[in-house]
Amino acid sequence: MTAHKIFGAVAVCIGILCGGCAGTETADNGITLWHWMTDRDEAFQELADRYTEETGIPVKIKLFFPPGLYSQKVIAAARAGNLPEIFGILGEKKTLSSFIQAGHVENLTPRMNAQDAAWESRFYPETLAVVRFEEDNAYGVSRGIYGVPVDTTVLQFIYNTELMEEAGLDPDAPPKNYAQFIDAGQKARETLGIDGFICGWAEGWLLNALATEWAINIMGEEKFQATIAGEIAYTNPQWIEVFTLFEDLRESGILANNITTITNKEAEDAFARGNALFSFNGSWAVNVYRQLSPGMEYRFFALPQVSDDHPVKIWGGAGSAFMVNANSPLKAKASDFLEWLTEKEQQKYLVAETNNLPAVKMQRESLPVILRPLVDDLGALTHPNVWPYNEDSRVLEAMNRGLQQIVMGIKEPNEVAEKVQSIKDRVTEQ
């Protein structure tokens, strides 16, 4: 599975998780790791074998797919007290907090801070922030680091360099602002007869991620967070401006037909076949495009800015992370393996085999050329899992559906804003 699934929410409550803490699944004289990532299974298996050769400790890698099945497996194991030594948790930060509060996840802070924080200092701070809980956090979790990131995910715009040139555009000068983006997309449609932009907007999280980036660019991160906190309404003129951007995209004619019914997989396939000039996707797309169209020439570029008043923030963070079972008698061995897994040599291997951004700091020149520009953007990452508050899922659902309706021409931006705010008000009153 691609790394973006980490962004999907899995509803879990503490009551479901508190089934029992007595057991754990272990390999004979070794440790077991559960994961959901089909694109990384072979690499994990290879690294587990190498670790066993080096240490004599068996590491059993078990893949469960699709992600929904994996999450069900983890929840059932938590209830039965039979989690493996190492596992991942799909979902929002509140889902991770539920596992922590139920006593299933080891606080790795002492281990991370040992020897002058040797382990902690390896990671990009923005990536580690996804599994870190600060003092007085909104989830009531004790301060600490509760997971080990193994890669980093960044959502960015992408363009096909060959199509740029064929459309009479400079392949070394991607659009820097919204107007240039529209103009380039229209030029591609007029000259090449292809879509200016394609994305998997049947999946609301992609729409929401893009809307979030533009909202922060227009109003600033502080005002954006104030909206989530209920201090600013979604009917604020700046939010209307955000929603209107999607109306402008529809009216510009650059969007793929029926874009709100296209899944991300379908969008990736269409982009790889040269059916669109631009797309919006995650860093995991490098591995996807390598499989779909090995010879395609493309590059990432930053969000086309709407405003110069506020900096661009980029949706991203830890693409996947592993937790240590706090109830396992082998949790120290599990921590040993994860510390080894996040050493530079193992991270270099994962990058080379999977084309995912590393979780640990690495020399830019040691990364594949296509990934290097993304490293430059890591200081600008933002994600719900690092915000002080998260928006209610019912509000997000209304926003995502509203954005789809704007793109389809069914609703006006102000109608969507009023609908989203009405649900926000109702949720707040409960």
List the helices and strands and how they pair.
Elements: H1 14-17, E1 31-35, H2 41-55, E2 59-63, H3 67-80, E3 86-87, H4 93-101, H5 109-117, H6 125-128, E4 132-133, E5 144-145, E6 148-160, H7 161-166, H8 178-192, E7 195-198, H9 204-219, H10 221-228, H11 237-252, H12 264-272, E8 276-282, H13 285-292, E9 298-301, E10 314-324, H14 331-341, H15 344-354, H16 372-375, E11 381-382, H17 393-408, H18 413-429
Parallel strand pairs: 1-2, 7-8, 10-11
Antiparallel strand pairs: 3-10, 4-5, 6-8, 6-9, 6-10
Describe the structure.
This protein is of the alpha/beta class. It has 2 domains: 3-153 and 317-368, Periplasmic binding protein-like II (D-Maltodextrin-Binding Protein, domain 2); 154-315 and 390-429, Periplasmic binding protein-like II (D-Maltodextrin-Binding Protein, domain 2, 3-Layer(aba) Sandwich). 45% of the residues lie in helices and 13% in strands. It is built from 18 helices and 11 strands. It has helices at residues 14-17, 41-55, 67-80, 93-101, 109-117, 125-128, 161-166, 178-192, 204-219, 221-228, 237-252, 264-272, 285-292, 331-341, 344-354, 372-375, 393-408, 413-429; strands at residues 31-35, 59-63, 86-87, 132-133, 144-145, 148-160, 195-198, 276-282, 298-301, 314-324, 381-382. Strands 3, 6, 7, 8, 9, 10 and 11 form a 7-stranded mixed sheet that branches. It has a two-stranded parallel ribbon with strand order 1-2. A two-stranded antiparallel sheet has the order 4-5. Helix 9 (204-219) packs across helix 11, helix 9 (204-219) packs across helix 17 (393-408) and helix 11 (237-252) packs parallel to helix 17 (393-408).
